[in-house]
Amino acid sequence: MNTKLTRLAMAAALAGILAPMSVLASPDEAERAAVASEVDAQQKEMDAQLAEARARLEEAAHEVAEISSRMSEPVMDHMMSIYEDGPPRAVLGVQLDERSGTDGARVQEVSPGGPAAEAGLRVGDVITSINGTDVKGDRTARQVMRAMRKVAPESKVKVRVLREGKSQEFVMTARPGMGHYDVHIPPIPPIPPIPPIPPIPPLPNEAYGPVFIRGPLGEMELVSLTPQLGRYFGTDKGVLVVRAPKDFKLEDGDVILAIDGRAPTSGSHATRILGSYQPGEKIAIKVMRQQKTVNVDTTLPERGPPGRPGREGSDGKVRLDRRVAGRESAT
Amino acid sequence: MHDSIDYIQRLRTLPTEAAPPYNWQEFQRRAAPARVETDWRPLAAAAALLLFVCAIAIWGRLGGGRHVVADSAAIEDGVQTWGTADRTSGADRQSLAQVNGAAGRPDDRDVAQGEVSGSPGAMSAGPTPGESLVAAKRSRAIESWLATLPQEPTVVRVGTRASVAGLEDRIAQVDDLMTSMRIDGMRSDRVAALQQERLRLVGSLAQVRYAEVVASRSP
Questions:
Q1: How many residue contacts between A and B have a Cβ separation below 8 Å?
Q2: Do B146 and A217 count as a contact with CB atoms less than 8 A apart?
């Protein structure tokens, strides 16, 4: 009995000690919770700031690309003016050595990201045939240029090269160039100065220059399909849409199988195909949606205006305004 | 209301013109000691500093390359941000340093030689073949860095990729044109001008691809 009473007394005493302590502890916990909440809010704010900074970095990259390309136009135009105009021809993305030997045309430079680079051509390779046509004898570099006249842009080209004494074949997809410039016009004698000509409005990029995509379509995100992803989505070909643009009738999770009959092999390829259309053009996209093939007829949205986002364009209108995470854009 | 009327009245009572504090002779007298007491020491220090800065600038132009070191550190920081072991290898670091050595200087040169790319009319006074060779070397250094990157990021953002594709296509066009010009025996200064343009485009491509990689690897 005494033992029981003693135990009860001890329990009561312990409760008496702990109760005020818990009362004392509660403000501390509340304070901790407040601090945690504040830290959480700060973290969120910094996350948003970081996302915004990254969006700015990406936007700056767009600007660098556009401005650089625009800056190169006068030089290219000037050089092109030496040659006669002609329809755009295909390019492989190589510089050839004009002093190449009779065995073939030596590759002097490979354009980064160009068809030859993608296929694996290297500096020092000697081109010995183009689409089965041998390149040998005199003026081999010129022979390659002539052979390329018969190649249509976007078509496959078989290029055989000699590398370290061994013959290898590469297949690449030619890209559109700037036009024929095989006909050399002799230099024109200097002419007297003429009165200034009023400025000519710039040609749209589509003339021969690169195409830049901004606006909703530029926000689209694509992933090249791997075999594992392909099994999941029920196809072994195509490009997965992980972020579909607004008003383009595509959905997140669609796998693009073909754009007007052209089957994209990668995200880059799909981008190039989409870039070949004019805004407002109608296109038919074949997609795999929820394991079923669906044909989507849609219209290419506006590419978005050039110029800095959120700033005035040449017409004085404020254009894109990207905000947190760079996900929303408004005109 | 009363206050404002009061102020107006007080203002009206003021004399029309205040007498000058002192005349011209007094002004000259006060100004004279100031000229005598001019302290030349700060001016001398400023001149010495200016000379020092000029000397540093000349040293830099003659190949001191101090800015290259600074820039390479910046790029290395960028590499560390990517956080992948393969990119922080010694070989990559070396190539990045080369890239930066190549990519850092052209901008300075572009500013100095703005007429080369900006005004076609001035192209006859453009870069020499020797400069063209240097540009080609720098371009190759950047290209070797570009070659270490995957052909495209895992997630391709169409807008950024279009910018990359645009630059790549333009470089391919420049290369094609350069081949044509060479085999037609065009003036070397024209080819050199195109080489400079190519270098600028390749530098821009590296910058855009860097931004693309950073964006694609962000959590």
A1: 233
A2: no
Alpha helices, DSSP H only, in chain B? 2-13, 24-36, 41-59, 66-82, 90-112, 114-118, 129-146, 158-183, 188-216
* Alpha-carbon gap: B204 to the closest alpha carbon of chain A (Å): 6
pLDDT tens digit sequence for B52-100: 666 666 665 554 443 333 333 333 333 333 333 333 334 334 444 444 4
B39 touches chain A (CB under 8 A): no
Candidate from B168, B182, B194 with C-beta closest to A113: B168
The pTM score is: 0.64
**pLDDT for residue B28 is more than 90:** no
For residue B186, the model assigns a pLDDT of 81
Closest by CA to A144, choosing from A153, A135, A152, is A135
For residue B153, give the amino acid letter: P
Nearest CA in chain B to A270: B158
Q: Return the percentage of chain A with pLDDT > 90, whole number.
A: 42
pLDDT at B175: 94
Residues of chain A positioned with their CB less than 8 A from the CB of B140: 109, 123
Which of B116, B173, B214 shows the shortest C-beta gap to A91? B173
Tokens of A74: 């006068």
- A239-243 vs A255-259, strand pairing mode: antiparallel
Q: Nearest residue of A to residue B178 by CA position? A: A95
What one-character-per-residue DSSP string does A37-82 give?
HHHHHHHHHHHHHHHHHHHHHHHHHHHHHHHHHHHHHHHHHHHHTT
Q: Are A81 and B123 in contact (CB under 8 A)?
A: no
Q: Which residues on B lie below 8 Å from A57 (Cβ)?
A: 211, 214-215
DSSP per-residue letters across A144-189 = HHHHHHTPPTT-EEEEEEEETTEEEEEEEE-EE-S----SBPPPPP
Among A57, A68, A222, the residue with its CB nearest the CB of B204 is A68
Cβ within 8 Å of B, A 29-68: 54, 57-58, 60-62, 64-66, 68
Using CA atoms, how far residue A312 sits from A204, A212, A286, A302, in Å, is 20, 18, 38, 18
Residue B166 with chain A: CB contacts under 8 Å: 65-66, 69, 209-212
Contact A72, B197 (CB under 8 A): yes
Q: Are A205 and A217 in contact (CB under 8 A)?
A: no
What is the per-residue pLDDT across A88-147, written as a single tens digit (0 to 9) for each? Answer: 678 999 999 999 989 999 999 999 999 999 999 999 999 999 999 999 999 999 999 999
Of the partner residues A68, A77, A213, the one whose CB lies closest to the CB of residue B159: A213
Report the distance separating Cα B83 and Cα A324, nearest Å. 24
**Does the pLDDT of residue B190 top 60, yes or no?**
yes
pLDDT of residue A193: 64
| Confidence (pLDDT) at A54 | 82
- Locate the domains of chain B by residue range: 24-61, 72-217
Judged by CB atoms closer than 8 Å, whether chains meet at B180 and A76 is answered as no
Q: A317: which 2 tokens? A: 């209108």
Give the count of alpha carbons within 13 A of A118, CB side only. 22
Nearest to B170 by CA among B180, B178, B182: B178
